[in-house]
């Protein structure tokens, strides 16, 4: 055996330990509460964020509003407070003609031509909605008209060169911004999925050392017993780390801000796939994520379909933080 081969064999135990998302090693999160969300006729809630003292959400079927969630006592369905806005025409960010036309047809068929899939906010009170169909970000200030962020042309160009943003309805699915409002991260959904980062400078938004933190393709076995493309469906920022919501595999992963590498993952499959909560093969996908010191909020996009117990309204889950905290290593 060559010295190189012996060195690789010696490292194998360490390499195995460093696989943070191996299914057999995932800690299962504990469900504390689940809340039915009432008052959203279009359903399809697909983003979640804590802005100030409240949780906010957005539907990918509505281009002119988002919702503040209003908790209710005694297990009653949570209500919503609607805030409306008028989005100006979206910019041309360099998507192919095929992607643009497919998004237009899909929007006309189902509603929600801008297909807002994620929501973020900064400490100044600005809200940010990411449009999947337009691969663009709408900023909604507290006291000024909405406007589209002037994202750099390199963003879409580099994403596509890395294999992302190739299929319609599989573009940007998640967004998060730091409290200061000068660092922004986006998640590309699938085939390939990936993470992208931008910084705000005097001349506008730019990418430092490239826009793409990571991209990867392939498929994964799911807790439902099938195989699905690797995906991201939501982002959260907590304690200097990115947290990705990976709906097909029912897990949350902590990732490096610098490279997007997965450091540790946790599963919510045990609680999310009980007979009463299961929607079947297609619906009931987790699409909104907020991580905090005490746990995680997860919003389900049920597409107005009923789960095992017959409930067909949107559902919000509250999970406890891992036993040793989000920062613990395996």
What's the SSE blueprint?
Elements: H1 3-17, E1 27-28, E2 31-36, E3 45-51, E4 54-59, E5 65-70, E6 79-84, H2 97-110, E7 116-121, E8 127-131, E9 136-140, E10 147-148, H3 154-161, E11 172-177, E12 183-188, E13 193-201, E14 204-206, E15 212-216, E16 219-221, E17 227-229, E18 234-238, E19 241-246, E20 251-255, E21 262-267, H4 269-272, E22 285-292, E23 295-301, E24 315-320
Parallel strand pairs: 1-21
Antiparallel strand pairs: 2-24, 3-4, 4-5, 5-6, 7-8, 8-9, 9-10, 11-12, 12-13, 13-14, 13-15, 16-17, 18-19, 19-20, 20-21, 22-23, 23-24
Instruction: Kindly report the average pLDDT value.
Output: 90
What is the number of domains? 1
The major beta sheet can be summarized as: 5 strands, mixed
Instruction: Name the helix and strand elements from N-terminus to C-terminus, one letter apiece.
Output: HEEEEEEHEEEEHEEEEEEEEEEEHEEE
| Number of distinct helices | 4
Strand content: 35-45%
In which order are the strands of the major sheet placed? 1-21-20-19-18
Radius of gyration: 20 Å
How many β-strand runs?
A: 24
CATH architectural label: 6 Propeller
Name of the CATH first level:
Mainly Beta
Proportion of residues in helical segments: 10-25%
Judging from the principal axes of the Cα atoms, what is the shape?
Answer: globular
The CATH topology is given as Neuraminidase
Domain Phytase-like: 41-191
Pfam family, one: Phytase-like
Signal peptide: 1-24
Protein name: Esterase-like activity of phytase
């Amino acid at each position: 055996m060559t010295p190189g081969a012996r060195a690789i064999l010696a490292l194998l135990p360490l390499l195995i330990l460093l696989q943070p998302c191996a299914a057999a090693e995932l800690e299962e999160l504990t469900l504390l509460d689940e809340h039915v969300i009432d008052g959203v006729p279009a359903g399809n809630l697909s983003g979640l964020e804590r802005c100030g003292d409240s949780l906010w959400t957005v539907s990918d079927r509505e281009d002119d509003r988002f919702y503040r969630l209003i908790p209710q006592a005694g297990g009653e369905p949570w209500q919503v407070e609607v805030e409306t806005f008028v989005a100006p025409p979206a910019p041309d960010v360099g998507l192919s003609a095929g992607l643009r036309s497919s998004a237009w047809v899909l929007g006309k068929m189902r509603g929600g031509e801008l297909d807002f899939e994620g929501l973020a906010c900064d400490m100044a009170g600005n809200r940010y909605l990411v449009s999947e169909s337009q691969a663009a970000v709408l900023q909604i200030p507290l006291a000024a008209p909405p406007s589209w962020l002037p994202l750099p042309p390199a963003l879409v160009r580099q994403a596509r060169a890395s294999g992302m943003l190739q299929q319609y309805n599989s573009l940007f699915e998640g967004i998060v911004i730091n409290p200061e409002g000068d660092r922004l991260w986006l998640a590309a959904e699938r085939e390939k999925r990936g993470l992208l980062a931008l910084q705000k400078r005097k001349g506008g938004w730019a990418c430092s050392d490239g826009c793409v933190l990571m991209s990867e393709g392939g498929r994964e076995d799911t807790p439902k017993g099938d195989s699905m493309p690797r995906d991201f469906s939501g982002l959260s920022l907590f304690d200097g780390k990115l947290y990705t919501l990976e709906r097909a595999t029912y897990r949350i992963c902590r990732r490096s801000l610098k490279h997007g590498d997965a450091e540790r993952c946790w599963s919510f499959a045990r609680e999310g796939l009980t007979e009463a909560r299961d929607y079947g093969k297609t619906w009931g996908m987790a699409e909104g994520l907020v991580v905090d010191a005490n746990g995680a909020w997860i919003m389900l996009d049920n597409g107005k379909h009923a789960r095992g117990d017959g409930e067909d309204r949107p559902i919000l889950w509250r999970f406890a933080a891992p036993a040793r905290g989000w920062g613990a290593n395996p």
